[in-house]
Amino acid sequence: MPRLQLGDWINSGVNWLRDNLSWLFDFISSVVQGMYDGLNTVLSGPEPLLLAGILALLAWWLRGLLPAVLAFLGFALIDSIELWGEAMNTLALVLVAGVITIVFAVPLGIWASRNRAVSAVIRPVLDFMQTMPAFVYLIPGIFFFGLGVVPGVVATVIFSMPPGVRMTELGIRQVDAELVEAADAFGTHPRRTLMRVQLPLALPTIMAGVNQVIMLALSMVVIAGMVGAEGLGSTVFQAISSVDVAMGFEGGIAVVILAMYLDRMTSALNQRVSPLARRALAKEKAKQLSGLKVLHWRPATSVAMVGVVVLALVAGGMSMFGGDDEGPEVSANVGKGQSVNIGYINWDEGVASTFLWKELLEQRGFKPKVQSYDVGALYTGMAAGNIDFETDSWLPTTHASYWSKYKSKLENLGSWYGPTSLEVAVPSYVKGVKTLEDLEKKSSTFKKKIIGIEPGAGEMKLMQDKVMPGYGLNKNFSLVKGSTAAMLSQLDRSYSKKEPIAVTLWSPHWAYDKYKLTKLKDPKGAFGKGDRIDSLARKGFSKENPQVAKWIKNFKLDEKQLTSLESAIQDAGKGKEQQGVRAWLKQNPGIANKLAPVPGGADQKGKDAGAAPMIGYFPWDEDIATTYLWKNVLERRGYKPEIKQYDVGSMFTGMSTGQVDVEFDGWLPVAQKQYWDRYKKNLVDVGSWYDKTSLEIAVPSYVKDVKSLADLKGKAGTFDGKIVGIEPGTGEMKLLKGKVLKEYGLDKEYKVSDGSSPAMLAELERSYAKKEPVAVVLWTPHWAYSKYKLTKLADPKKAFGASNQLHTLANKSFPKEFPEFNGWLKKWHMTEKELASLEQAVQDAGKGNEEKGVQKWMDAHPGIVDKMAPVTS
């Protein structure tokens, strides 16, 4: 029998409708979206517990005191698990869909009850609507209405309409025919017979249909979440796709609470609006025992409505005058409130990169909205223009089918990570297993099992069809099928016990940041070549949003950065992805400005961007601090500076020969005079950036009556007869021992202890903590003056000599090779307070974290980059 091309006919019909009735679908979309937005605003505005009180009051009016208390506790539970916003989104969606369904279902049921032909025609249609899998309605829904609330509402209306129509028809048909005949005999118009006789008597059955409509609508929230509708559907969908039991249970509990509330309230509403039900309720109340009456007492309608109005007014007032919530910190208002819709697949790297860009765009003044989608819906939504961009397309292989179908309606903004890879991984404590070939010989070590993921995943099919046969693993190993979450759980258990385990993994993945794992090499190339991860956008996005598109095009993360970002989000927990991103940004200072540089601001490129000056520095506090400061500033201006540590003699030699371009710690005209005199023919003095350095002895400010070097005389007992020194070969130590002590008559009374700068600072810290007197060799500038309250002992005899200035010195060719940088350095100047606080920030960050310390200081000094390195147009 020839194949009937039914699917193709339907597809052609859908395309025709989309192309020719787009105006109608746009109108429907506007109406439905407007209804949802309005209702959602009303439900989401009040404080959660206040709205819970309003809903509980309605339950008291309809059901009694006990249901009201239980309703309040249920909604309080939703608030406590931080799903209140999602629950209100869902409630708004259900109510909008329910109202639309009832508006169409009740008249259609009445028509069917009064016309046998209509009933016969719509019955098979209703059967079709009720039995067709609800997921199928999403496909044309996406084509006609795009992504978001509207296709979810439309699918919900179609799915939930049959019981509303059937119950309305049934209720009217069940009205006693003699009553209808009696009304007709008295000359009652058919319309009045319907309104005064049939509908009141059929109302209990119709309300049962309304109840079923709302219950079916609520059951559709998960499906609505798959097409981008906000609410609990999105939460449950994410839990399903990530096999997150905790998130799924919490989302499910919230749905159950909403379902129970709506079921009980719609059932009870029948007792308030139906004459027959009111009569039955009155009889029931009369039979109740006196002790139980208080539990079943319900306030009068007028009293209940007054209570609801009062609470609503209070809620409105709180929403209007509250406003305590802090919005995102905007560091540069580039976006000026412009909305950006970002879609993502619920994969670790997709979640990480999406919420990273959400945070960055918020910092730049945009209002990004992120939503999780199924892969197909994501591509369809971008092609239709409902989604602006996404950052997780695996090309050219994994997502090849989607790209080939939609590429004419999309833009590829470039790859930001690659190559990706599929692999089998083992813990690094498993020795002798470095390749897949090694694995084949150690089957007993791993109990003949490789822990896999979802059976339908591409990697699993590749493992079964190619990798395991290719390495002979199918003979001694079984591939355990399960889920990604189960695989990671088993990895965590085995890793904690130091047990051997082999798992299917891929790169990038946060597991490589959390655990020390070995990626088994694939010498035969059985896994194939890796993909790259691209960012895609809807057609026209780059023209409409050139700045965001430029940032995305330049976006790059290496494996260490991406896996640490994924790990930070994992540590933050579900629902706190952005907090994880913020924690990661704090651990990676400066990266936000590198990824989203502000046009014309701190990250504007310099004229000589790309130049790579070699900067030398001494292991002295002021030089370390200023060198790393300039490194940061130059990188923001597009330079590629290199830094290297030298001793004094090597530095001057290197600059004179051109191996070092510039250094910032020339102590002139005194301390480094001998070096300057020797090499000045091949050097250039760019200028001084810090005035009046000094060499001195310092004591804590709690040591009284010691203000000058002369005051030290006769007080050796106070300081145990010693002055704590630094490295014995330094110029200051030689000057102190050879001249200063003799000049003030202290050479016989005090001994200068040789040591090192760190030892001197450690002794200062210990003594300062105990409030003990101590005299130390110091100099200005130094961060110790920022950390401690110290007294610089005056030197009235000028025994330490004239003060120095800190100069920038460079190779003679430096001004010509780096004219822009040279111009910045000529105008550069720092105060004692600025330099001391910079040194302190670097000290606090610790060895190896100088860049983080500098970034923290720069964050506390906004505008410092433009001040130090202004870029002129």
UniProtKB/TrEMBL annotation:
Pfam families: BPD_transp_1 (PF00528), OpuAC (PF04069). One of its GO terms (cellular component) is ATP-binding cassette (ABC) transporter complex. One of its GO terms (molecular function) is carnitine transmembrane transporter activity. The keyword Cell membrane applies. It is found in: Cell membrane; Membrane. The chain crosses the membrane at residues 49-78, 90-114, 134-159, 201-227, 239-262, 303-323. GO terms for biological process: choline transport; glycine betaine transport. Residues 87-266 form the ABC transmembrane type-1 domain. Its main location: membrane. The keyword Cell membrane applies. It is a multi-pass membrane protein. Keywords: Cell membrane, Membrane, Transmembrane, Transmembrane helix, Transport. In the N-terminal section; belongs to the binding-protein-dependent transport system permease family. In the C-terminal section; belongs to the OsmX family. This is ABC-type glycine betaine transport, periplasmicsubunit. It comes from Streptomyces iranensis.
